[in-house]
Amino acid sequence: MSGWSQHQGHVVALPIHNVDTDQLIPSRFMSTPRSEGYGRFLLHDLRRDAHGETHADFPLNRHGHASILVTGRNFGSGSSREAAVYALVDAGIRAVFAPSFGDIFAGNAINNGLLPARINEEEMNLLFQGLADTALAAEVCLEKRHLQIGDQRIGFDLDPGWRTKLINGWDDIDLTLSHRDEIDRHAQELKQRAPWIRPAQITKNS
Amino acid sequence: MTGTRTLLDKLWAAHEILQREDGASLLWVDRHLVHEGSHHAFGKLAARGASVAEPDLTFAVIDHYAPTRGRDRIADPKVKYMVETLRKNAHSHGLRLFDLKDPGQGIVHVVGPEQGLTLPGLLINCGDSHTSTHGAFGALAFGIGATEVAHVLATQTIWQKKPAAMRIRIEGKLGPGVSAKDIALNWIARLGADGAQGHAIEYAGSAVRTLSMEGRMTLCNLSIEGGARFGLIAPDETTYAYLQGRPQAPQGADWEAARAHWAELNTDDKAVFDKDILLNAEDIAPTVTWGTSPEQAIPVTATIPDPNTLTNGKAQGARDALDYMGLSAGRPIEGTPVDQVFIGSCTNGRIEDLRHAAAVLAGRKAKVAGLVSPGSALVKAQAEEEGLDRIFVDAGLEWADAGCSMCVGMNGDLVAPGQRCASSTNRNFRGRQGPGALTHLMSPAMVAAAAVTGTITDVRPLLEGRAT
Prior knowledge:
The complex is a heterodimer.
Chain A: E1 6-14, H1 21-24, H2 44-47, H3 59-62, E2 68-71, H4 83-90, E3 95-98, H5 103-110, E4 115-118, H6 121-131, E5 136-141, E6 146-149, E7 152-155, H7 160-168, H8 172-177, H9 180-193
Parallel strand pairs in A: 1-2, 2-3, 3-4
Antiparallel strand pairs in A: 1-5, 5-6, 6-7
Chain B: H1 7-15, E1 16-19, E2 24-28, E3 31-34, H2 39-48, E4 58-61, H3 77-93, E5 96-98, H4 108-114, E6 123-126, E7 140-143, H5 146-155, E8 157-161, E9 164-171, H6 180-191, E10 199-204, H7 206-209, H8 213-221, E11 230-232, H9 237-243, H10 253-262, E12 275-280, E13 287-289, E14 297-299, H11 315-325, E15 340-343, H12 345-348, H13 351-361, E16 369-372, H14 377-385, H15 388-395, E17 398-399, E18 420-423, E19 438-441, H16 444-453, H17 460-463
Parallel strand pairs in B: 3-4, 3-6, 4-5, 6-7, 9-10, 9-12, 10-11, 15-16, 15-18, 16-17, 18-19
Antiparallel strand pairs in B: 1-2, 2-8, 13-14
Helix pairs in contact in B: 2-5, 6-8, 13-15, 13-16
């Protein structure tokens, strides 16, 4: 994963609360190999009617080039499916601004270079009003933690560790393996202190 | 010991290998449960050329795509592909696989506890948000995404920031026909679907102590529907009685050593929680959802709320939900006709859930079609031994094999567009049970009541004079 610290694109409003991960990607698409791309599944059933025709007035249909979303509370709640983040990323979305995110979703986002930026409800409402159904040119700066739209600048919250990870594009496995000695020590100590912690019968069918 | 530590503090400290400068902890993982949906993670592992660090602590279960009928020949190529991919990954990494014909097969959050893989004091991860279920045993259990699954596979550890501590105490005695499901929908309706975000919830109080392990699992399972990645209940005699003799639980001297350790797994008297909520069990009625978020839940005796009376930006969401659900504000929820029912899922697919539903259905006929999918093959066998399957079949419901089934519809068990389903599952999200499906969440007993009358119905009168 490559890191990033600034992004220029277009921002749209999706003024809905509780956009759960079942909305972000319905489960019937989740057996698709990632190599085929998940962008076309993003918000599939909200963007299209039962016959597959797109709703012309849906924000992401109107502005297919948007790469920054402003949306409501509890975005990405529900299922842990990382496919929800794949759908956003593969559709070109780089940052989502919302008052709160599902805990699992936010972690998944960071692991895929997608920014889950927290803003307060007042700022959310101002952005909803200001954007209405347009798409405006905008810039996201991770270093300074702000979203710039014209001369308007909105700060956002992000865990400092997550910000570092996004900027550097770090892979956790590499970082973790640099602590291999401490991990081994913990595992050995645990085996001696509480041998009963391991499963009683290790039966394999391979 | 300072005497001010929460159960969360104790579990966290026991698993923390180190803490990073930014406050994230590297935690040791005692059990890792994988399923067909973990294919992205195995793909990531393969891309690195890495192997599973601790195959003996990693268990694979076929559940999300498990066919509930006709397992000998899987017709749907997508389902077949997902099942075979997990088989291949489990085989190549030497993992114990609970395959479709395994007597221990079932939903991962039913299988873990009933095999004794889930124990107090363990850290348990699974790429599924309902992993909070295992917290009912006093385990630190939480759902993770595919990148994190790959990380656990490769390292047997996970990076995580310690959540804030929250307690929900439920004091008093639940009324007849009221269950753990109703407690959960009740608190989620009060606090909101994001009410516990960033928190680990410890459930406590006399009403929790008197719950069976099945009830406690239902309660912890639904933590994520209120935003909490973790649910916790301190272990006690009920926990030990459930676990003793389970295949993978410690035995003999190990059992005694484990018991001595587990006795320490509780919150100290002087511990302080970041959020502390008190509920009165007597105030909780059988509860049903009317909308498309688990927070949109009301007592079955109540009327559907008027969106215009809702605050905190919830009015538009309520209007959209009523529009999708085809319901009108101000009308009683009771009496709403349903087209079908579903009993099952990791929330309510255990033996006690089936007993509760059967107690309502015994000697009665269902007015609508319905599917009963037990949470595991062992639950299925137990139910058949008790004759519960006959009660469901005689009532006109279909008795099927175990899996996630109609909770998420990945195996093809779907609710058709525009059909209304009374469901013992965990999510009433738009389209969760199938595109255009209309879901009402409720307890298994309430689902059975809906089957009997063909409408959303207060189960309590139907239970009068019956042993439950």
